[in-house]
Write a structure and sequence with these properties.
binds adenosine-5'-triphosphate, alpha/beta, 310 residues, six-stranded mixed sheet, Rossmann fold
């Protein structure tokens, strides 16, 4: 089956900043994909390009086999999309906005929408402008999923939802993926994402730092605690394919977050002069995210004398 989203060297240059810098991304159908990134990382910009609301400065992309740059309306008919600030017609009621959208999509849209607003216990005759933030979020979600899109793109989908609704909603995303549809989530709620996503991408300052299955990411990153006889001891450089993501020194302890750490490297480290011991621990997704996005990330495969890391 074709990838549901592909981007090639996607770049977005605004006057004051580079929001995206050569993003290459592929997303397989039938997955819950989560895009993580700090404030200003470029997540919304990427979503706006994928949904045809923004033209990239350079590079290309395809969404559901359509180029959103040249066919924005076709893409938007095919996908479901909830932005981080959904724009709804305030003067319509919850029921009216459903009829309105159903007139565009047809099919089972209206009955599915009604089921959804009933499930969310939304007041059908209340005007959108009189709804709470969470109720508006539920209307947006109901509209986005009512035509059963093969791709659902959600920018901060659970903001404004109470914990019970968040949990049910996220679990329903797993069901969607199990039925072959794709869910693209952009979120700051890393612990929530960790429960539902099968693929994770981390965007940092407009660059895609990593994109891989969550289980692979968690299995491949560890934090080493290296105990040194002296803080000035030089720790051997880890060879390829190791990638040092972050390191900190606390007196005679060096903490190094590393991807693709292997057993032969462990032997080299533990037998290095001045190294008293090395222990490794697994990290949560949140800790991995911090390692990838923290400004102190060292460049790959450098010699790391302690004095340079304090
Ligand atoms: N229309 C615009 N004109 C100029 N700069 C913009 C524009 N849109 C976004 N930017 C800048 O591009 C960068 C990326 O913004 P974007 O909204 O994509 O980040 P984000 O990852 O979604 O952040 P957040 O998590 O805070 O929503 C930011 O520095 C932002 O100021």
């Amino acid at each position: 089956m074709n990838d549901i989203i592909t981007t090639k060297q996607l770049t977005m240059h605004f006057r004051s900043c580079d929001a995206l810098r050569g993003v290459d991304l592929t997303i397989k159908p039938g997955t819950v994909f989560a895009l993580l990134g700090e404030n200003g990382a470029g997540k919304t910009t990427l979503i706006r390009i994928l949904t045809g609301f923004q033209k990239p400065t350079s590079g290309s992309c395809r969404v559901c086999d359509i180029d959103p740059t040249s066919q924005p309306l076709e893409v938007r008919c095919k996908i479901g999309y909830v932005s981080d600030a959904p724009a709804l017609y305030d003067w319509m009621s919850v029921a009216e906005i459903g009829w309105f959208a159903a007139s565009i999509y047809g099919g089972d849209f209206h009955s599915t929408y009604l089921d959804s607003i009933r499930r969310y216990e939304l007041p059908a005759d209340r005007k959108i402008r009189h709804l709470s933030k969470g109720q508006r979020a539920k209307v947006s979600l109901s509209l986005a999923i009512a035509h059963d899109p093969e791709l659902l793109i959600l920018d901060e989908p659970t903001s404004g939802l109470d914990p019970m609704v968040r949990r049910d909603f996220l679990e329903s995303m797993i069901d969607r993926a199990a039925s072959g549809r794709t869910v693209f989530l952009s979120s700051h709620q890393i612990s929530e994402v960790e429960r539902v996503a099968d693929t994770i991408a981390i965007l940092h300052e407009g660059r895609l730092r990593i994109c891989c299955p969550l289980s692979e990411l968690k299995d491949s990153v560890v934090e080493l605690t290296i105990s040194l006889d002296d803080p000035l001891v030089t720790v051997p450089t880890l060879p390829d394919p190791a990638e040092v993501l972050r390191e900190e020194t606390y007196g005679r302890q060096r903490r190094v977050v590393v991807r693709n750490y292997q057993s032969d490297m462990h032997t080299v480290l533990t037998s290095a002069p001045g190294v008293a011991g090395v222990s490794a621990r697994d990290l949560s997704l949140e800790e991995i995210f911090i390692a990838y996005t923290d400004g102190s990330s060292p460049s790959r495969n450098q010699e790391h004398p302690a004095k340079s890391m304090v």
